[in-house]
Amino acid sequence: MNSRGAPTLEDDRRLVGEVLARAPGAFERLVSRFQGLCWHIISRMVRDREDARDLCQETFLRVHRHLHQYRLESALSSWIGQVAYHIALRYLERKRIPLVATADDSDDLGARIADVRDDFDLEAASADAELMNALHAAIDELPPLQRTILTLYHLEELPIGDIAAITGIAEGTIKSHLFRSRAKLREKLEAIVRA
Question: How many domains does the chain have?
Answer without folding.
Answer: 2
